[in-house]
Fold ABC transporter substrate-binding protein.
Amino acid sequence: MSRVMKVIMMVGALISSSVWADQEAARDTVIGVVDSFRTEIIADKSELANNAPLLAQRIDKILTPVIDFDDFSKKVMGKYYRRATPDQRVRFATVTKDTLLKTYGGSLLELDPDKIKVLPLGPQREGREVKVDVDFTMGDGSPLNLSFFMEDYGNDSWKLSNVVINNINFGLTFRKQFSVMMQQNHNKIDAAIDAWKQSLEKKS
C-alpha cells in the first residue's frame, strides 16, 4: 500500500471517529433528559399528579435547555412564518411551549421508571440530525417508542429538532394541522394561533 493511501485511510478513520463521537454526544444529551424524567418527574409522581403548576415547572426546567421552541415554532408555522409579525411569532412560540408542557406533561407520570431504555445509535442519515431511539413502557404495560432527532447547535450543545412517537412524526403532523387552521380561519394568523392553542388543549 502506498504512503499516500495510508495517509488517506488514516485521515478517513480520524474523521469517522470524530463524527461518531459527536453522535454519541447527542445520545448522551437524551440520556440526561431521560434520567431527569426519572428523578425529577416520575420519582415525585404522587406529589406532581396533584400539582399541575409544579409539574409544568419541572418539565420546563428539563426540556427548555434542549429544545429551541422558537425554531420548533418556525418549522410548525412553515410558509406562514414569513408572513407573521415579530409579535405573532413570539406569541405562537409561547403558546406552543406553554400548551405542550401543560398538555403532554401528565403523560410522563404514567411511565414505568424501570422500563426506560435509551438504545444504541443505529445507522444515521446524512445531515445535521442524529436519531436517538428510546423505548418506554407505560404503567399499564403498553410500549411507547420515541425517536428523538437531535441537532448540533455547536459548542457541544445538542437540541431536539423533532420527535417521532410510535411512528407518528409530530413535527410534520403539527405543521399540517396549523396549515389547516390557517385555511379554516381565512389565513388570519392571530385567529389560527387561537385555534392552535385550543386544539392542543383538547389533547389533554
Q: What stands out?
A: The longest helix spans residues 3-41. Strands lie at 117-118, 129-137, 143-152, 158-165, 168-169. The chain has one domain: 3-202.
